[in-house]
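Tokens help. Consider this.
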Amino acid sequence: MNYDPKEEGITHINIYSKAQSPLGRYMSNFDRCHIEISIGQFASIEGLIYYLGSFDERLRTVSGANAKAAGKLFDRQIRLPQDVFRRFIIEAMEHKVDINNHLKSLLKTCNLPFTHYYVYGTKKVEVKGWDWQIDEWNRIRKQLQEN
């Protein structure tokens, strides 16, 4: 779907650290939070993503652009099977919702479609390859709304 960034929060939720909506910012992988999953603690999903590529312990404590910058510095030769990689990210997403009542409430009451794009001035850049994460946010939201 081709969403207009000017209508963010009205026609859709953009999952982005610089989103106009609080929900979009909370859902961002850059968001600083305290995640505890089966492989330990992390300060953000972004840090976890890069940790899963390098297993460098320093990535456990970073968030936002710092996580991305640090992650790009470390050796990322280790590759997990895609299903294992995704399972850890999904576990982190679920934990993030469990510990953040505000995020949980916003997800539960929101019926707008989720998307992910960047905005640079007037330029909109669609993000490819992470649709599965949007699918998971939809699944989590549906589960919250049914309970």
User: Anything to note?
Assistant: The beta strands are 13-14, 35-37, 40-42, 114-115, 117-120, 123-126. Helices lie at 22-27, 45-54, 64-73, 82-99, 101-109, 131-146.
